[in-house]
Amino acid sequence: MKFSKFSSLLMLLAVFIMAPNAVSAEDHGKMDHSKHETPVLKGAGHNADEHAKGEKIEIGRMKVTLMPEYDGAGLIVIKEGKFADKSMFPREVTFNIPKGVKKITDVCSLSPGGQHFCQLFEITEGQNTNILNAKLPYSDFFIDFKYSPFEAKENSTRTFTYDLSSQYDIKTLEVNIQKPARVEKFTLTPTTANTYEKTGYEYYKYVLKNVKAGETKSFTVSYYKADTAPSVSVKFKAMGDNRIFSGNIAEILLGAGVLALAFVIVWRRRKTGV
Amino acid sequence: MKPFLMALSLVFVLSFMSGKYIFISSAPEQSVMGISHSLACPCECPMVLEDCHMSCGLSWKDQIGAQLMAGKTRTDITGYFYKRYGEAALLTPSQRVAGKWYQVTRGGYPMKDMVLFVAIVAVWASISYLVLVSIGEKIWPAREK
User: With contact defined as beta carbons under 8 Å apart, do A33 and A115 qualify?
Assistant: First the structure.
């Protein structure tokens, strides 16, 4: 039995079987979306270094939404906004994301027609924050990710601070914090009287003007919660966990497989007398 | 014969593993995620709606949630989307495979899950191959020798 050939064949077949007409995320950037060309791949994109060379890039408006324990134990962060000068795009841009965030759910650019062009991205570790680097074809952007800045235990007070900073000046920064369901003693630092209700949840809103690049705005959220269930029930959960396997099924399948393989090998050796 | 059995084992195990993941939702049938498994993402990307987190996708999921709360069934809701949005909501089997492959290539799954998936396919394909070889040796002993 030639396992080296077998494993090569396995990998090759995995690719061909799983993706007969499939588009990879890399190809997606090259796709013709309803006849809209994706300019980022023309090679005309600028890079983040040009920013450092004195070119002034500014975000016109950015809205950041924080949703603690919305559909899981962590924090969902959604950043959406638009750069002030559309003519500077396509280009490479960078965003600060919290330390510990190594995975982003979506990094997309929105065309003037509202179409989403999700992009490949890189995350590098910075000194105080991690840095997300992506090429955006259009000036409007949408980024979302999940992470766990606090531990969700039963009958406990959850406290976390979200440090918001940007690589670029922001003319108007809007921060919206969703109050999780079934919580008590919900406090925010700094406080705000600006609240509104949307889809059954209470939001706290901050509007900040002319935030400078590198300036950090910190928001501390604290609340007591008796249970560990998310705000939204599983039935109405809208964001997946991006997992292939649920629970320990993968480990069980692999363990059972290894045992079965060992059994079959021993059985064959005994049978053939080798 | 052996290369054919290798390929057969691999195709069988891989089809089972990926087919289970691609075509059967792990979310409850009467839930937003369960119903999103049957619809395409409307956001100009080739994803299945359940993997889509963009505002246009979330807006469709909100609509699904509202219809669930109104007491509608999975069939009613998917039927509504197919009628109202036509091809934009339809998901053919090849689009479903393409959508999941896109999710893989965009780094949509944890590396641990990807490694486990490949390891499970390799181990179970090896078992299937050895079992098929044993059966083959029993049926055609002379040829194998």
Answer: yes
Mean pLDDT of B18-35: 82
A103-120 b/e with 16+ CB inside 10 Å = b?
ebbbbbbbbeeebbbbbb
Q: What residues in B contact A114, CB-CB < 8 Å?
A: 56
The model's confidence at residue B63, banded by pLDDT at 50, 70 and 90, is confident
Contact A182, A230 (CB under 8 A): no
Distances (CA, A) of A255 to A266, B13, B26: 17, 16, 21
pLDDT in tens, A85-142: 999 999 999 999 999 887 788 888 888 876 667 788 889 998 889 999 999 999 999 8
Structure tokens at A176: 């919206």
Candidates B4, B20, B126, B133: best to mutate against A (most CBs of A within 10 A) is B126
Q: How far apart are CA A239 and CA B30, in angstroms?
A: 15
Residue of A17, A103, A268 lying closest to B15 (CB–CB): A17
Task: Please tell me which of the candidates B32, B53, B121 has its beta carbon nearest to residue A236.
Answer: B32
Give the contacts of A243 (CB within 8 A, at least 6 positions apart).
B109, B110, B113
Fold of B31-108: Helicase, Ruva Protein; domain 3 (1.10.8)
For A23, the closest of B3, B11, B46 (CB atoms) is B46
Q: Give yes or no for residue A6 having a pLDDT over 90.
A: no
CATH topology of domain A26-236: Immunoglobulin-like (2.60.40)
Q: What is the ipTM of this complex?
A: 0.72
The answer to whether residue A46 scores a pLDDT higher than 70 is no
Residue of A nearest to B43 (CA): A116
Tell which residue, B48, B87, B47, B44, has the closest CA to residue A110.
Answer: B44
Evaluate whether A90 touches A40 at the Cβ level (below 8 Å). yes
| Pairwise CA distance, residues A196 & A186, whole Å | 15
Which pTM was predicted?
0.63
